[in-house]
Amino acid sequence: MEHYNNVKFYLLDADGSSIDYLGNDSDYPDTEYFKGTYEKNLSAGTYFIKIVRGNKGGKYTFSVNEKPVEISRATIKSVKRNGKKATVKIKKVTEASGYEVVYSLSKSFPAGKTKVVNTSKTSVVLKKLKKNKPYYVKVRAYKIESGYKYYGDYSSVKKIKKK
User: Which of 111, 132, 140, 149 has its CA 20 to 30 A from that of 104?
Assistant: First the structure.
């Protein structure tokens, strides 16, 4: 599922004063009560808010049409192994804030280890590798925007040959 930019909405009365909601959500399990502001990451679409006071109420509609945060797929330029170390070089992704390099003894990465690299470096040294065992590596770029981390797709998996 893709994540979209954070959406904020505020409920105001006719005078422009904020409307606060208080309640016990165990009384109404299918509704969310809040006081003040409510923030949530929403995907594009149409949403409804129902506001009720006594027997008066109304249904209000709002839409989210924001463009998703896009980040390109990272690419591994090269992988070189020297004994218990391997150097992974990454092709720079211009809009990235950093990279996550995942490596494992298995091509399916069930227990992969992750190294985080900022964009000032486009290579990472993997240490303490087991000698005479092949490893597999993949990388993805990420971008931090408005306090949230958005990920690009993983690169293709490269084999780090045993040495």
Answer: 149
Cα–Cα distance, 140 to 161 (Å, whole number): 21
Contact 97, 143 (CB under 8 A): yes
**Mean pLDDT throughout 60-64?**
56
C-alpha to C-alpha distance for 162 and 105, rounded to whole angstroms = 11
Segment 106-113 shows an average pLDDT of 91
Domains of the chain are 6-64 (no CATH), 75-160 (2.60.40.10)
User: What tens digit of pLDDT does each residue of 11-27 get?
Assistant: 554 455 554 444 444 44
pLDDT digits (tens, 9 = 90+) for 83-105: 899 999 999 999 999 999 999 99
